[in-house]
Design brief:
This protein is mostly helical and 259 residues long. The protein is built from ten helices and no strands. Helix 3 packs across helix 8, helix 4 packs across helix 6 and helix 5 runs antiparallel to helix 10. Its main location: membrane.
Amino acid sequence: MDVLDAVAVLAAGIAAGGINAIVGSGSLITFPTLVALGYPPVMANVSNNVGLVSGNVSGAYGYRRELGGQRRRLLRLGSASLIGSIVGGLLLLALPAEAFDIIVPGLILIALALVVVQPRLQAWLKGRREEGGTHRPDGGALLWLGVLGTGVYGGYFGAAQGIVLIALLGIALDDDLQVLNGVKNAMAAIVNGTAALLFTAVWLLGRTEISWWAVLLIAVGSTIGGLLGARLGRRIPPLVLRGVIVVVGLAAIVQLLRN
């Protein structure tokens, strides 16, 4: 890796960290950058995942104020993220990429639709609860299963997992969107961190390849970007934040279809 390549990867890491903290889909910057620089797709995917972990953690740290009082919820939903990430990471190591190449654009499109209609669905669910329905502060079994499925996807590739998470959380839970964004960042950190540990263990066994230079540059960049993105994202009004989510999600679909 020469100096220009290193600068490109570092810059991509900063941008990805910021986007992940605000919305998600940062992998759609770093992953194509590594591929464009000549890294094999699986190696690029694994290196990208490991490198973005510190950015996920810094993004969650940036939302620490909103995460106050969320311990029980994070433990419950985090268990789904943990299990799903292990399953997704194993799928990445065992299966060809063609299957998810077909599924992922549709998944992101559904997530964007959920983000757009979230206020109406949330109001409907609130009305149902006020009429005597059961209120589940942690979202119940359906949300847990949805987070589990998102964890599988995140462990496999992960681009736009934040969009899927924020859509699911926004519909199932009664909290402010900024609080849910903090929860989303924490769960994304669990998913990527778990997958990174799995990939590192497999690398030690000689069963996969990791570019540690790429990991280091993405880690430094995404940590900076995560802190900056958290500060910016907290100041964005809910309506504007939803608009950003939709724009980034549509860009993600275009990028995936082009690849």
